Each structure stands twice: as structure tokens, then as C-alpha cells.
């Protein structure tokens, strides 16, 4: 029997980008002491108060089919949070609750792309982006953002790729680079979307992890609210990765259509998880800052270590829980360096090539182990690069 082209081509010809991660995980399962600086998984667990709220909701009976497009209480809290932070009028009618940000990305592309449509995204990209686009039957079209531009996409490059496209996916604060798109960058993106009648899908799951400058949601730019779908999530902001809860914010008609899609796909998110998310968001910015604080500390640790060497070049990340390091002076590709580091020192990082062509010759380091272990591993990484460059 033959499977559909859509499902068999989700993973492109270059693989899914996770090969080194799978290798490191196999080593861990075999009992080897690998330091994993690969994925954006917090080294702390979900706050006990959030788990207690989840338990109360479940034991209180909120375990049946939950309301689609989400409980009124959670949608109201999300809407209020978005409106307060962006200044854009937002109500529950603008909010769909999804099983995590990844589900939101998939649903958003279903909403705006038909079979065979061209869907643009920025390279470097989170590893699931092209597969998500291919999974809805669209054609994934990368547009490069260059290291020499601090990984800020150029409006001219977007405009050149835009004719005939239906959508553009952006991510700021950015995974994997740590870049936060400047106002000028976002103005250029908005102009291209307006000129070429593109939907903008804005992945903003790292909006609570801002180290330099300010995060600006492109939905807040003039004329963009009616053509923007914003993806949000509790995974990064509240260390709720396994709870699988996020949202899409967009125009009322789009949200209503997306609710119909949810009925025919996910059938919503468990009510007790929605109640826990509502509780977590009501704790305000203090809880978000507490969860983000370890990544700010480790960023500072890494930057201090980098000051004492000349082999690795890096743009200080402005946001998110990662650093993108240029290791080309070692003479190795990102993939070869990551393999060497893992084999020699049992430290796992992600090759830049896992995230597209633009970050070739780079590696991505996740700031996701405790401070002492991170300091030791990062210093070892730098020493390894220095030795290779000699």
C-alpha cells in the first residue's frame, strides 16, 4: 500500500535535523554522562503551584471534553495579556487554545495555505518549520537571514521571494539565533506582507525571554492585525512543555474557522490543563521572570567566557534560551564540530546546519543545565574549539 505524498515528504531530503540529538539521547540511555545542550527544555520542572491548580481542576471534575475553541476563562486571560503587552484590542473571539505552539503553527498554516501554495519562512529556522508547511500540503520556501546582518531578514530578500506566496512565518525572539527583530526589520516585513497580500504567521513563544531591547509583536504594526496570526505557548514562559498548551491570536473570522478545524483534528485541550494555564497566567510577570532568570544568568556566564578567547565569534543573544556560535575558525562545519565535541567530551550541542543553510559553520547551544554544569561544559566547548583552530 502507498502512503500519501504529504506524509512521506514531511521530512525533506536532508533529514529532520535531529540526528545528533538522537545520538546523544541514545548515549544517555546507555548510561553515558552526556551534558545535553541541545533542546529548549528547562532544567526546572513546572512550578508546584501550577501542578496543584491542575490537580484541583482534574479532581474537581474538569476531565471531560473541553470547550472548543477553549475555555472562556483562559481565552479571556490570554486576550487580556496580549492586549496589555501589544496595545492591540483583543478579546476571547480573537483566541483559539491549541495543544501547544507546534499545533498552533500547523493549524495556522492550514488556515491560510491551500495545497501547492508557496509558504515563506526565515532561514535559520526552528527545525520543524519546513515539515509543518509540507504537512499541510504547501511548498516550503526558505528566505535567508545572514550572520553578517545579525540574522535580521532583509525586506528586499523577502520581497524577491514573495510573488505568488500566500504566507510568511517569522519567529522573534528567534530560535535558534537569539535575535530579536528590530523595528526596522518588522516594518520591512509588514510592508512586504501588505504589498504582496501575504498572511503573516508570527511565532512569539519566547516573548518572555528578552535580554536586550524590546520585543514588538508585528500584529501591533499599522494594518497588520487583520493579516497576522500570532502563536503563543505556555511551554517556554511557564516551563509547561509537557502540558502541551498554547494559542493562536488572530482575526475573529480566522479564529472561528480554526475552531472548526480543531473540532475535526485535536478536539480541544483537556480542561484541567487549561485551568492550570489560566492560573499560571494570573500569577503575572513575576512568575515569568523567575522562570526566565536562569537563562539570563547563563547567557552572562557564556559571554564572560567568550571574552577570554578569539576562536569563536558570537552575537550576544537578545532573547530566547540559546546562543548561536560561529565556529568556522576551527575549520569544521557545525555538524562536524558538534560530532567531535560529543565524541571527545560528551557534550551535545545542535549543529547550525540543523536549522538551515544560513547558519552553516555555526552551532546552537541551549542554556538548559544548571549554572555550574553549564559553566564547565561551555568552557570545555571553547577550549575544544581553540585546540582545533591551532
Automatic annotation (TrEMBL):
CDD domains, per database record: AAT_like
Reaction equations catalysed: L-aspartate + 2-oxoglutarate = oxaloacetate + L-glutamate
Record-annotated Aminotransferase class I/classII large domain positions: 34-379
Necessary cofactors: pyridoxal 5'-phosphate
EC number: 2.6.1.-
GO molecular function per UniProt: transaminase activity
InterPro entries in the cross-refs: Aminotransferase_I/II_large, AspAT/PAT-like, NHTrfase_class1_PyrdxlP-BS, PyrdxlP-dep_Trfase, PyrdxlP-dep_Trfase_major, PyrdxlP-dep_Trfase_small
Pfam families: Aminotran_1_2
Keywords: Aminotransferase, Pyridoxal phosphate, Transferase
Family indicated by similarity: Belongs to the class-I pyridoxal-phosphate-dependent aminotransferase family.
UniProt-listed PANTHER family: ASPARTATE AMINOTRANSFERASE (PTHR46383:SF1)
Protein name per the record: Aminotransferase
The species this protein was found in: Lacimonas salitolerans
Amino acid at each position: 500500500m502507498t502512503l500519501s505524498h504529504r506524509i512521506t515528504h514531511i521530512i525533506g531530503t536532508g533529514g529532520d535535523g535531529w540526528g545528533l540529538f538522537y545520538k546523544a539521547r541514545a548515549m544517555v540511555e546507555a548510561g553515558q554522562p552526556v551534558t545535553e545542550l541541545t533542546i529548549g527544555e528547562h532544567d526546572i520542572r513546572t512550578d508546584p503551584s501550577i501542578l496543584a491548580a491542575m490537580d484541583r481542576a482534574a479532581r474537581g471534575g474538569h476531565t471531560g471534553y473541553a470547550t472548543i475553541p477553549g475555555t472562556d476563562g483562559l481565552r479571556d486571560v490570554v486576550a487580556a495579556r496580549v492586549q496589555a503587552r501589544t496595545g492591540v484590542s483583543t478579546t476571547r473571539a480573537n483566541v483559539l487554545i491549541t495543544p501547544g505552539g507546534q499545533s498552533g503553527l500547523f493549524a495556522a498554516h492550514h488556515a491560510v495555505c491551500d495545497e501547492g501554495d508557496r509558504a515563506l519562512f526565515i532561514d535559520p529556522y526552528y527545525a520543524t518549520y519546513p515539515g509543518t508547511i509540507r504537512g499541510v500540503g504547501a511548498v516550503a520556501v526558505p528566505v535567508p537571514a545572514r550572520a553578517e546582518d545579525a540574522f535580521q531578514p532583509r525586506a528586499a530578500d523577502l520581497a524577491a521571494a514573495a510573488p505568488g506566496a500566500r504566507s510568511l512565518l517569522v519567529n522573534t525572539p528567534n530560535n535558534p539565533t537569539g535575535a530579536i527583530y528590530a523595528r526596522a526589520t518588522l516594518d520591512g516585513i509588514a510592508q512586504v506582507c501588505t504589498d504582496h497580500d501575504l498572511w503573516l504567521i508570527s511565532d512569539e513563544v519566547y516573548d518572555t525571554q528578552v535580554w536586550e531591547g524590546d520585543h514588538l509583536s508585528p500584529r501591533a504594526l499599522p494594518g497588520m492585525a487583520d493579516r497576522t496570526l500570532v502563536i503563543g505557548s505556555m511551554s517556554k514562559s511557564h516551563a509547561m512543555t509537557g502540558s502541551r498548551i498554547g494559542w493562536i491570536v488572530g482575526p475573529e473570522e480566522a479564529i472561528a474557522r480554526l475552531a472548526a478545524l480543531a473540532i475535526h483534528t485535536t478536539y480541544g485541550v483537556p480542561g484541567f490543563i487549561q485551568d492550570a494555564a489560566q492560573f499560571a497566567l494570573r500569577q503575572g510577570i513575576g512568575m515569568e521572570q523567575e522562570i526566565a532568570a536562569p537563562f539570563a544568568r547563563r547567557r552572562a556566564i557564556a559571554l564572560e567566557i567568550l571574552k577570554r578567547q578569539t576562536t569563536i565569534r558570537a552575537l550576544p543573544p537578545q532573547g530566547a534560551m540559546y546562543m548561536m556560535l560561529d565556529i568556522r575558525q576551527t575549520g569544521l562545519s557545525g555538524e562536524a564540530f558538534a560530532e567531535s565535541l560529543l565524541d571527545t567530551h560528551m557534550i551535545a550541542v545542535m549543529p547550525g546546519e540543523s536549522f538551515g543553510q544560513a547558519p552553516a559553520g555555526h552551532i546552537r547551544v541551549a542554556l538548559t543545565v544548571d549554572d555550574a554544569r553549564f559553566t564547565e561544559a561551555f568552557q570545555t566547548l571553547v577550549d575544544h574549539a581553540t585546540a582545533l583552530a591551532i
